[in-house]
Amino acid sequence: MMAEAISDRQVVAVLRPFVRAATPVVAAMRTPGRMRGLASRNVPGSAVWPRLSPQARTGWWINRVGRLTALITSIPGLGGALADRLPVQDALGATAQGLLLCAIADEHGLHDPGERVRLLAWVLFQRDLDPVLAAGKGADATEDAQAARLAGNFGDTAKRRIGFRACAGALWRMARSLMAIADELGKRPRGHFYQRALGALPLVGMLGDYLAERSALRRVARRTTKWLSGPGAGRP
Question: Residue 103, CB half-sphere, CA atoms under 13 Å: how many?
Fold first, then answer.
């Protein structure tokens, strides 16, 4: 018996808390000194940052933050092909890609949650959502609570330093929220076939999955640029 197709409304219900939780996570990553291991001269908030092109800033997110998220995402790959058959890998991968999408949206001035939902749905799941549906119904206490739970410590603006454990915890919570639309997760951009083949092997699978996720993030960035430059995309 075939599973019932996931509706656009279900996708929106999952993605709206996700993109709202992503806001403080991305904000922490762009704040100098807030995220351990991301220190550099050309970082968000530095004097150099505003002079960089949107493409250069996108490259920073892929190459710096992408290394961290790809590492966390690839950990299940230690199990090889068995782990690849579990939905957790796709959920973590989609979460990392969703965070990158929100970061790139920031660099292009796209801050509206509804438009970010449309962006994620198009890039990750090949869905062209209705703007009214993606905009939601206004104030929603349930959505507020879901977003706060997913953000966790990242929602605490007074917390100065956030390490690997907090980042991994946020990724895991956000990944679990995406499991509600698990059938969609297999549509997300992926790495090259040879990288995924390496990921199917025990022990070295983590390396293959890491390389695949890094490659997939570059594909996400290209698809994001295409969406932002296309007709009907939300722009300030």
Answer: 31
Question: How far is Cα 234 from Cα 129, in angstroms, rounded to an integer?
Answer: 12
For residues 178 and 115, the answer to whether their CB atoms sit within 8 Å is no
pLDDT tens per residue, range 23-80: 998 888 877 555 555 555 667 767 788 888 888 888 888 887 677 777 777 666 544 4
Whole-angstrom CA distances from 84 to 79, 91, 97, 106 are 8, 11, 17, 32
What's the CA gap between 155 and 47, in Å, rounded? 26
- CA distances in angstroms from 229 to 54, 162, 226, listed in the order given: 13, 34, 5
Mind giving me the DSSP string for 106-161? HHTT---HHHHHHHHHHHHH-----HHHHHTTS--HHHHHHHHHHHGGGG-TT---
Output the six-digit token pair for 160: 């100065």
Each residue's pLDDT tens digit, 178-212? 999 999 998 998 765 665 556 566 666 677 777 88
Q: Classify residue 64 by its DSSP letter.
A: I
Please, is 158 exposed, middle or buried when counting C-beta atoms within 10 Å of its C-beta (0-12, 13-18, 19+)? exposed
User: What band does 82 get if pLDDT is binned at 50, 70 and 90?
Assistant: very low
Distance set, CA 109 to CA 25, 51, 103, 105, 113 (Å): 17, 15, 10, 6, 12
Residue pair 184/11 in contact by the 8 Å Cβ criterion: yes
CA distance 13 to 145: 13
